[in-house]
Amino acid sequence: MNDAIIIDDNRSTADALQQMLTVLDIPARVAYGASPAMSLLGGFTPRLILLDINMPGVDGLEVLAYLRREPRLIPVPVVVITSDDQPETRTRVMKGGANAMIIKPATLESLEENLKKIGVIK
């Protein structure tokens, strides 16, 4: 099974998410921003993507749009993890093709619950 990818420009958040996935037995690679993520995704199909929205330059909604246009990546579950709890953001994220959305700070429990809901883990 392929690794997951965590895309977040905040290193401490990304590293914490990586540790949580490790606890859930999901190996993960980290991309600290959209550009490193695009490089990583060029030759790799992950089993799961955790995606931040508010990143400098290319934001997470643009990354999500790319993920949902790229045939190889369309089936990959995407969980958006963001501090933006506005209803319009949730609407844009879900309409954009995300499978779930978690408001930061993510907890192991919220991550596990959402990954179970979307069928990534049992």
Descriptive keywords:
alpha/beta, 5-stranded parallel sheet, 5 helices, 122 residues, Rossmann fold, 5 strands
Structure description:
By secondary structure, the chain is an alpha/beta fold. The protein has one domain (4-117): Response regulator (Rossmann fold, 3-Layer(aba) Sandwich), CATH 3.40.50. Helix content is 42%, strand content 16%. The chain contains five helices and five strands; from the N terminus they run βαβαβαβαβα. The protein has helices at 11-23, 34-42, 60-69, 87-95, 108-117; strands at 4-7, 28-31, 49-51, 78-82, 100-103. Strands 2-1-3-4-5 form a five-stranded parallel sheet, with helices on both faces. Strand 1 (4-7), helix 1 (11-23) and strand 2 (28-31) form a beta-alpha-beta unit. The protein starts with a strand and ends in a 5-residue tail after the last helix. The relative contact order is 0.18.
| End-to-end CA span | 15 Å
Number of helical elements: 5
CATH architecture name: 3-Layer(aba) Sandwich
The total tally of domains equals 1
Q: What structural category do the secondary elements indicate? A: alpha/beta
Classify the beta-strand content into a percent band.
15-25%
Strand arrangement, major sheet: 2-1-3-4-5
Describe the structure concisely.
It is built from 5 helices and 5 strands. The protein has helices at 11-23, 34-42, 60-69, 87-95, 108-117, and strands at residues 4-7, 28-31, 49-51, 78-82, 100-103. Strands 2-1-3-4-5 form a 5-stranded parallel β-sheet, with helices on both faces.
